[in-house]
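Example 3.
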Amino acid sequence: MFNYFLRRLLYAVPVVFGVMLLTFVLFFMVQSPRMMAKRNLGPKATPQAVENWLHNRGYDKPLFFNTSPGKSWYDSLFFNHMRSLIMFDLGDSDSTGERVSTKFKKGAVPSLLITVPAFVLGLYLSLVTSLFLAFVRKSKLDVGGVIACVVLMSVPIMVYVIVGQWLIAVQLSWLPAFGFTPSGLTTAKFLMLPVLVYVCAGLGGDVRLFRAIFLEEVHQDYVRTAQAKGASHGRVLFVHVLKNGMIALITLVVASLPFLIMGSLVIENFFGIPGLGSLTLDATRTSDFAVMRASVYLGSLLYLFGLLLTDLCYASVDPRIRFK
Amino acid sequence: MSALQNILIFAGAAFVVIACGLFWRSERWQRARARFQGDRVGIISLLIVVFYGLVGLMDSVQLSAHGKEMSMIEYMFRNTPNERGYSAPYADTTYAVNRPEPLKGRHWFGTDVLGRDVLVQTLRACRTALIIGGLTSFIYIPLGTIFGIAAGYYKRWVDDVIQYVYSTLACVPGILLLIAIIMVLENVNIPLWNGDTIQIPRLVQMSLALGITSWVGLCRLIRGDTLRQVERPYVEAARALGQSNWNIITRHILPNVMHLVLINFVLGFSGLVMSEAILSYIGIGAPVGTASWGTMIDSARMELAREPAVWWNFTAAAGALFFLVLSLNLLGDSLRRAFDPRASGK
């Protein structure tokens, strides 16, 4: 198992390097640092101010190799960028000057507060619904359920957000419509609506996918065997099929776990929750390239971490995988 | 300008028709067509999609009438006057609590904050959505198909390189990559032959970003299927007959994976339309002055908070977006059923 883990970890190294390269190409080669400075300082900035901005951040160095006398050849944008990413030195925010890492630490908690309950609730609901649909397969209920899923999938997430807020918060005034306070029960009140919206928005797609996975299992031989030995319909479905279907589900579910930290951009932004999604969106508004760069990098690392977790779960559930 | 635009549009439409026509007579497609004809949901959703396409096309074709250039949609609604501000659907006064003013005309879907007819705006936003979807598909479908087939056919280092590129791209969360690419492209100036520089138009920025993020899925799909096709006897037979690699790929493998491209195109298109609306909604989408369902939904944040609520702008945009995405999803499912009845007929 440990060997397997090590092998998977080594596979991830070139991909991490690729992502670092991608951020470099995107943020330093496609646009010049000078453009970045101009965007940040506004069109009226003096050339001197631009030079200062570049110098303070070390962006006035050559792109790949430093050929000026007295400097080491690797004192360039490329090598500095790579080194800082490896050391997780994400620098200062371009708009507020705050450390990027502090910003991310602050934003992670509110994001997790929304996505974790939403994830658990959503997973539970979609598992139950999809198993039920698989139970009544080929009936009118099943057809109706699948149609409902497609309809739910086709509603844009903004519509869930806006209708949810308008109906539950404004018209019925059950829950507050907007905002976030990090203190006990009040927080829960603020969080309920975003969580609900998050669950609704993902339900259709998940149920359809899970149902397809379970239906795949229903036609396996072991199901016939279980039925032949007299296991009840429900037992076959909820014990045999669920267990085996979980193997396929784990890949999907575990890989999505790290994204919980990133939160949902649209939902956080709309409900005024100061999480990582809002942070990223604010970065686009204030042309904060440092934050954007960091979130692309961290997002990818999280995803790779999720893949690694998936591999591990997969290998522990299905030992054959390890020897491939 | 308008002549060029018209020619481009018809060239694009003709390309799509020819591309479909090329595969029309292959046996797999004929069987699929026969199955599709019995699928009522599929046909209805195809009709709805075609209707949206026609509306988008009508807004793209420029005419010159009454001394100025206007699109066919503008021409059809040339008698619809502009009001001073909001008015409810089919009302005869403006929407104001204190002093409602009489309107100049009737508006089926009401008017928005600038007094523009919501129906016209909704119809015109169709074009924006279709341009994004179409342009992005032009970018990502060739990319995904070519790389996918190359990886699956040549294997070895070609496969390694392509897999490396797409697994790197795939591990950046999609929406973050989209936002980052658009944010960077905003700053890029392209030098022209006469020394000037131009910015990349916003819609092209969006299409580029969406194209870069969406070819990965298609590439993975095509690669997997090509790997399976290469093992089939027909490829071996073609090889034994001394066919060149190029001939095997274009004459034998491509027609056999093309239905996957079509299904991916239809389902992907619904995703692209949705992405356009989401990007416009979070403020990095369609530029100011371009009608877009996303911007219309965005403005509803304020409008629904008013008392009484201004609901018609939101409803029209959300409804139009919903029906397009829904029918694309249903059409994609029907096509999948038609091409591969075994996989989904359980």
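Chain A is about 75% helix and 0% strand. The radius of gyration of chain A is 25 Å.
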